[in-house]
């Protein structure tokens, strides 16, 4: 209304603006009312504003919307202190509506039943801090429970302190990580010896659980048999990699058996030999004379 006050619009033009900028549900009501009052658009405009006031401007509707925002606000973890500012902004909006006096239902927030559901959304450390500050307020002012204004000030101070860049290094995550490292270091009083061969085998089998599905060189979802980067290497380098990764020399597709136990039927697509797979064909790759892929990326294959 303030925006269009100086535009001297007719009722039909104001109705058009309302229908364009209202939300989906409220715009539907405006369209229906306008269609009924085609001949008297001034009356239709008045009915639209009356309907909007009934549905969205009534105290119960505004209170319900504000309480719904509070209920749907997610619980804040100790790693999400930045969300304290979002909570403070929402509480500030509610406090402003509360002080305007036309929403009597918001006085419910001055009780323990009103504030406790909000406190439950805070990290545990802040819940404990609120218990201490709230108890001190009760004793000091001889009241049944701290008012909503005091709780709002508590959230403001915590949001400011927890998001202060000067103390960004003193986060609970960093502190807990340092404590865990310190505890683990102090508890390791004995040294542990392992066989080097066992460690190497365990690492290789973990990193290459299925060479037929994931390339052990690029860690990409393509088999080693069709890896262009692997094929472009020298034959001795390819054999060395297969040996290090414990991959079968015959099929190049498994690290669970050796070549003498491999039952796969192989055939080289470059020379039709059944004595080695295409991935172990000696000599340069057939495409090396055109465009060479970058082995450091993903071997040149598409996903």
3D architecture notes:
The protein has 303 residues and is an all-alpha fold. The protein has three domains: 47 residues, no CATH class; 103 residues, no CATH class; 85 residues, no CATH class. Helix content is 51%, strand content 0%. It contains twelve helices and no strands. The radius of gyration is 35 Å and the shape is elongated. About 4% of the residues have low confidence.
Give a quick summary of the entry:
This protein has 303 residues and is an all-alpha fold.
Summarize this structure as a short list of keywords or feature phrases:
single chain, 3 domains, 12 helices
Q: Write down the domain tally.
A: 3
From the N-terminal CA to the C-terminal CA, the straight-line distance is 57 Å
Number of helices: 12
Q: Which regions are unreliable across 5 or more consecutive residues at pLDDT < 50?
A: 198-208
Shape: elongated
Approximate strand percentage: under 5%
What's the main sheet like? none
């Amino acid at each position: 209304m303030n925006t269009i006050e100086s535009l001297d619009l007719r009722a039909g033009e104001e109705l058009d603006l309302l229908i364009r900028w209202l939300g989906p549900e409220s715009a539907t009501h405006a369209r229906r009312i306008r269609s009924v009052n085609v001949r008297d658009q001034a009356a239709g405009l008045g009915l639209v504003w009356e309907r909007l006031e009934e549905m969205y401007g009534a105290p119960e509707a505004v209170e319900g919307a504000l309480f719904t925002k509070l209920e749907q606000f997610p619980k804040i973890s100790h790693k999400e202190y930045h969300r304290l500012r979002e909570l403070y902004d929402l509480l500030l909006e509610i406090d402003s509506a509360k002080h305007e006096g036309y929403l009597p239902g918001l006085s419910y927030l001055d009780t323990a039943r009103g504030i406790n559901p909000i406190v439950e959304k805070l990290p545990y450390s802040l819940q404990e801090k609120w218990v201490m500050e709230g108890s001190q307020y009760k004793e000091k002012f001889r009241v049944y429970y701290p008012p909503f204004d005091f709780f709002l000030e508590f959230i403001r101070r915590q949001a400011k302190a927890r998001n202060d860049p000067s103390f960004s290094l003193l986060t609970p995550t960093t502190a807990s990580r340092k404590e865990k490292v310190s505890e683990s270091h102090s508890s390791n009083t004995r040294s542990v010896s392992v066989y080097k061969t066992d460690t190497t085998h365990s690492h290789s089998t973990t990193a290459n659980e299925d060479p037929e599905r994931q390339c052990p060189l690029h860690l990409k979802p393509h088999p080693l048999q069709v890896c262009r980067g692997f094929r472009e290497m020298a034959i001795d380098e390819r054999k060395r990699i297969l040996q290090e990764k414990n991959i079968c020399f015959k099929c190049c597709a498994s690290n669970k058996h050796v070549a003498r136990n491999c039952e796969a039927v192989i055939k080289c697509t470059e020379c039709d030999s059944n004595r080695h797979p295409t991935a172990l064909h000696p000599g340069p790759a057939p495409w090396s004379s055109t465009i060479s892929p970058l082995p450091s990326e993903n071997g040149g294959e598409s996903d």
